Here is the input.
Amino acid sequence: MKNATTWLRAGLERIGIRARRPVPPEELFRRFRAVLESNNRALEIITDMGDTLGGDYLFDIQYVRRSYQELSAAFELSFTGFDALTEGKYRGLDAVYRSIDGSIRRAIDGATPAQSEPVVLLEDIGDNAAAAVGGKSKNLAELRNIVGMPVPDAFVITAQAGEAYIRHNHVRERSGLAGTSPASSVYQEVQELILHGEFPPELERAIDIGIKKLKKRFRGDCYLAVRSSAGEEDGDFSFAGQFETVLNVPADAAAVGKAYRKVLASLYAPGPVAYQRRLGYQAADMPMAVICMVMVDAAVSGVTYTRDPRGASNSIVINSAWGLGATVVEGAVEPDQFRVDRDDPRKGLEQRIGAKASLTVRMSGGGTAVLPSPMISRGRSSLSPEQAVEIAGLAMKIEKHFQRPQDIEWAIDNGGNVFILQSRALKPAEQHPVPNSAEEAGHVTGREPLVVKRGLQVYPGTAAGKVFILRNLSDLDRVPPGAILVARHDSSQLVRVMADVAAIITDTGALTSHMASLCREFHLPTAVNAGDATRSLDTGQQVTVRVDELGVDVYPGIVPELLGAAGSRQARMEELAEYRKKRYLLRYIAPLNLVDPLRDEFVPKACRTLHDILRFIHEKAVTQLIDQAEKGWRSHGAVRLDLPVPAGIVLVDIGDGVVHSSGKDHVTHDQVTSLPLRAVIKGMVLPGLWKSDAVPLRVQDFMTSMLRATDIVADSAPRSTASVAVVSREYMNMNLKLGYHFIILDCYCSDTVRNNHIYFRFAGGATDLTKRSRRLLFVESVLQERGFLVRLKGDMLIARLAGVSREEMESQLDVIGRLISYTRQLDAVLQDDDMAVRHAEHFLEGISGARPEQAAPSNR
Amino acid sequence: MAQSRIMVIDDEKIVGDMAKMSLEQEGYAVETFLSAEPALKRLDEDRFDVVVTDYKMKGIDGMEVLRTVRSRHPGTQVIMITAFANLDAAIEALRRDVHDFFPKPVKIKELKASIKRALEK
Here is the structure.
């Protein structure tokens, strides 16, 4: 019989069918450890790359290649181990990895992506398509396809299609566009050739199909907004208002073709050329895709900043006005402004009604017109408080998705439906002090200021130069370098001179306009809405300008006391095209989007970066271990560990780690014989570290704040579900999830000193980044004080200790046990960095004798 | 005091670009070259206080740059950077009186400090 079974198995194996045999826990755990080790290695390389490419190091492509080679190797290992561990359960992950890997390799080699379709629908745009569809379309596709935001239907004519159009019409050859800095007449010629060019037949067909699809979906005739979506647009640099936008275009091939030509040609207009040159593009050769989006019949439109662009308050800022959004984004009217609390949109809505003197409307048959607003609607708020709160809510979701502050354009139709039209990164002004107050400076210099505290600060700073009053945009070419540019209106056209002027002041304008975005990118001292600056100042006058949160002050002559060091602009690596290109690949590597397995969609296709894949692998590897433990390992000693604290740990005993009671599926901590686990438990269950009724409630003291924190965490955090410890008498590997924290503790604790080690990794956390950093600061202080080698990188801390005696190991593991319990509740109370240090001191005092609830630092 | 002049030679544009941006911020006048030939020509025309050069380059390499600078412009200090930590190259460079030797990636702060020390020599 035995022979027959062996024969049958051999036969099946020959034709590729293997009989499934249960994997013994030791083997499964070996695979699990292999996955963790390669994951850890990969994470360390990722953090190293993040550091090196962060602007503080000189690096070359060799470094990037070498690092990525190491990262790929770690990934391959992790994959192999993971596949073996989960027995091929997550095969889809490989395709996701290959796709991200392809994008990274293309970014490293500077290669263009494989030929894409010339026209793609917004919903068909997948990850890694940015190079083909441009930043704006990529952002909108993510919002629609991943976040589920209300984004109107659209198709995108890709950058490759744009290049095909230019080649088909021999634009470069005919205009002589080549070299590093072509003359402006060459650019004019390029624009002419594009505006009068012909479409390659396949592109014409593809656009036609795109239009038909949109019409079918719209169930009838619709109008389109035809807008640029250039390579780097809406990424680190906004290109705000730089390219042509053609609104209300009839959905027919001729009209769309004409609008497309206009948008494509605008890549070569003087403003965009200047901007591209500043960003390192020599011959305006940034790839340009164009998005054609169904027009929203907008009753109200506006712009939302998810953070106060001046960085002064914790508010979402919403600017809105009647009609289409053009009037708001170009700063042409004084809009209504709402300020909504970021943490609680329903709390404290602040509202200021703007004059909204004009509005942009759609014309029947196509095109738009600017009309004076009816008097009755000028004084009325364009948004109801409920609508403002709804917009704020959507905006916060968008920020959460992109993980950085956003500048969002939106519209509301006549039915009250909100649509998102664009979202890009917002760069709030950095908070740097501007030297001296105006009064002090006035006192020092004894000069009468020409302008005092007028307008709104777009970007702070001081500058000196000669005034140039810009009466007409056509005079932009005459603005001398180093001038203080003073203009009647705020306009994105001013980008042409932004790299050269020292400051900008405008009589009218808004904080949320395109020009304001650009000035922040250029770190250019700028104030808008300064009333009568064009009348108070004269061309040629030498002045010193100071912009701060109170507005702009202008003094006659040069005031050295005001200028100081803050007047000089900081060097910014992002302005180097080569640097951006290299750093760009981090986008595919470093950000973590999969944060919460209970809330986020934890499936392979949700992984957008390599970090996401590592997170996914880790989560699923732990789950696999626990599943196996719960299903099949009872006979191998998998049991629940009963502790007086709610840690929810499943134990897998691989050799003398636990004394089992027959017939029971749980053990108490007295039954644990694993040396390292015993030591950790001892620290974890120390009274006073977890919320318990025994803790006295004293107002304003440390433990009260801890209690409050516990309540907050307990209410909002998912229950501890995925915690597992694999133990033997001398070894322990614990994967612990408490609230949102993720802890890995791997240690060997024996009488052989050289074998002893502790690896402690601490990551995650659902609070905001500042508080997370403070928590890490706290953990770092404690572990460094205890003699660990600690590495703090972004959201993660790794601590190591090796080669110490068993007694020392046990004492250190006790401390780690206490840390685990303590930090679980720490997030919500760490109000400042000092407090993190005080908590660390207090914690260490607790270790040296006193119990934690005694000697508590105050929160005040 | 006259502005100190720094020359950066590296066959990768990104290295020169980043070095130039960060060193200009310190008030130095910086010129960058993608290969050694034009750089050495330029050195004959004008005085430079410090030359930062890559070790491995096509044509004339960093060691040759060091030799030339040592013999023709003894007042100019040389800082060498390499893609890999190459011990033999480091020893050879030190023997030829290189001011400093850095493996890439180079922490910009350290490069700045090294240049400052070189200027004080």
Chain A has five domains: 23-111+584-617, 119-294, 298-425, 438-570, 633-847. The interface with chain B takes residues 52, 56-63, 570-573, 575-576, 578-579, 582 of chain A (CB under 8 Å). The longest strand of chain A covers residues 461-470.
